[in-house]
Amino acid sequence: MEALLSQFTLLSDQALQDKNFDPSTIEDLMKLFEIESYKAWAAMELEAEKEEEEAEDALQKAEDYLDSVMESAMDEFRSFELELEKMEKSELDSLVQTAESARKMGRLMEKAASVASKKYIEAALSSATASMKSAWKGLSSGKVHPS
């Protein structure tokens, strides 16, 4: 383009100095300017398309990376969720086992209390029976103990 500008300057100077100068020479040069401008425009267009493709590629890479990071985060979340569910199940099982043990212990204590109260009643009856027999013997033998 600089060469064309330099040639245009020379032809302009020549046109001012030479009365026999052919104006079509400048027209030919202007056509070269037009061709060169189209070439520059086409090159800029290609460069813009190339930059657009590069930007789209970079954007696609960023989206792929984001998808990868999100998928990784979701996998980690699912893993955490499974681990938490296992811990909850383990704790629930432990609580159920403790409750079952407490229920069994309560039943055993109830049976033990029932057996103990029956033994107490039997002992009390035996003692009362023995006292009554002793009192009956004392009455039967005619001995009365002074109070």
Provide an overview of this structure.
It is built from two helices and no strands. It has 147 residues and is mostly helical. The protein has a domain of 73 residues. α1 runs antiparallel to α2. Keywords: Coiled coil.
Write the layout of secondary structure elements.
Blueprint: H1 2-17, H2 24-141
Mean pLDDT: 89
Proportion of helical residues: over 70%
Topology as a string of helices (H) and strands (E)? HH
The number of distinct β-strands equals: 0
Strand content: under 5%
Distance between the termini: 148 Å
Radius of gyration: 58 Å
The rough form would be described as rod-shaped
Number of helices: 2
Which structural class do you get from the secondary structure elements? mainly alpha
Main β sheet profile: none
Uncertain stretches: none
